[in-house]
Amino acid sequence: MSARPEQLSRFATLRALEPPRFARVLSAMILTGSIAVLIILFAVPWVQTTSGYGSVVALNPEDRVQSVTALVPGRVEQWYVQDGDTVNKGDPIARVVDNDPDLLARLAAERAQVEAEIGAAEQAMAVAQIDVGRSRQLLAEGLVARREYEASQIKVADFRAKLAESRAKLNRVDIALNRQSAQVVRAPRDGRIQSINAAAGGTLVSAGDVLANLAPEQPIRAVELLIDGRDIALVRRGRTVRIEFEGWPAIQFSGWPSVAYGMFDGQVRSVDPSARPDGLFRVLVEPRPGARTWPRADQIRLGAKARGWVRLDTVTVGYELWRQLNNFPPEFGSLRKETAEGKNGDEQAKPLVKVKAPKGSGK
């Protein structure tokens, strides 16, 4: 029989043993929390990631910042652009002239002289060839000695050598004329003038000196990430990458990508086969087809900082917490599976070896 309340009121010690309401609520909360923690640790999935920092780069080499150089030595006579100007391919940037203002006229006169030398050499060689034919006929008739015939042949060879030398000289003059005619330096492609080498305007420049830097307007962009060598074995072409761009508001949850905000999707394009001097591997990430479009080029420019998370295997929260506490590498389950499948494929692809039957067996 249960004791009535009025009976328990007579026993103060027994009444004091009853746990207070706060303790009962706290115990229930601890029990519920423990069950919830166990469920989270062993039932909730966690997407493993390996992260790295990097920057936005141009995928096409032609989309990177290019140096516009002087083609001929001389001095800059005129600038056609200023910093920040937009240019199209072939637009003039600067005019470089030689210190000698009469250089082009002198080269033209030298070319005319060489052409006259070539004409004289051709005419002389034609006459010498006639002499060779005449000497051959007289030699056959016994009217001249063989020495005269051979001398006429040597004369033809000399004129041929002089003609070749004159033509080579003409080629050198033409090359000089072509170079001097390229005094106007033009833009190699569409873009914007990022900076002008103002020091080149008042001093002599040599062929190859930088006059200006040209940056493209609409480059094909990619993200260059530096990944730790411990995790690079799991980073392969086609892996999904979550990217956070510098200056772009974003919230990242590494284990639950669906909860993240302001992130952009990419995929691994290539992984360098060798590490950098600091032990990090360079990974190129390109936009993922069908995913959210990356910000415009005027919002995320070349050289902007970025951070990326490469998605790896899916494990439980408890395993990920245990791995992080022990500083273990990510789960290599998929890598082992691919390795096993590759070994099985190699074994199945091995050709069957024919066993040669012993002699006299009749087979």
Write out key terms for the chains shown:
363 residues, alpha+beta, OB fold (Dihydrolipoamide Acetyltransferase, E2P), 6-stranded antiparallel β-barrel, 7 helices, 25% strand, elongated
Our count of domains comes out at 3
The percentage of residues in β strands lies in 25-35%
Poorly predicted runs are 345-358
- Protein structure class: alpha+beta
Number of helices: 7
Percentage of residues assigned to helices: 25-40%
The H/E string reads: HHHEEEEEHHEEEEEEEEEHH
CATH superfamily of the largest domain: Efflux pump adaptor protein, beta barrel domain
CATH fold field value of the largest domain: Elongation Factor Tu (Ef-tu), domain 3
- Which quaternary structure do these chains form? single chain
- Which shape, going by the Cα principal axes? elongated
Number of DSSP E strands: 14
Let me know the average pLDDT. 76
Largest sheet data: 6 strands, antiparallel, barrel
Protein name: HlyD family efflux transporter periplasmic adaptor subunit
Organism: Novosphingobium aerophilum
InterPro entries: MFP
Keywords: Coiled coil, Membrane, Transmembrane, Transmembrane helix
Written overview of the protein:
By secondary structure, this protein is α+β, with helices and mostly antiparallel strands. It folds into three domains: 46-61 and 219-340, Beta Barrel (Elongation Factor Tu (Ef-tu), domain 3), CATH 2.40.30.170; 65-98 and 183-216, OB fold (Dihydrolipoamide Acetyltransferase, E2P); 101-182, Orthogonal Bundle (Helix Hairpins). Helices cover 37% and strands 25% of the residues. It has helices at 5-8, 12-16, 21-43, 103-141, 146-181, 317-326, 333-349, and strands spanning 45-58, 66-69, 74-79, 86-87, 92-97, 184-186, 191-196, 204-205, 210-215, 221-228, 240-245, 264-271, 280-287, 305-316. Helix 3 (21-43) packs across helix 6. The model is unreliable at 345-358 (pLDDT under 50). This is HlyD family efflux transporter periplasmic adaptor subunit.
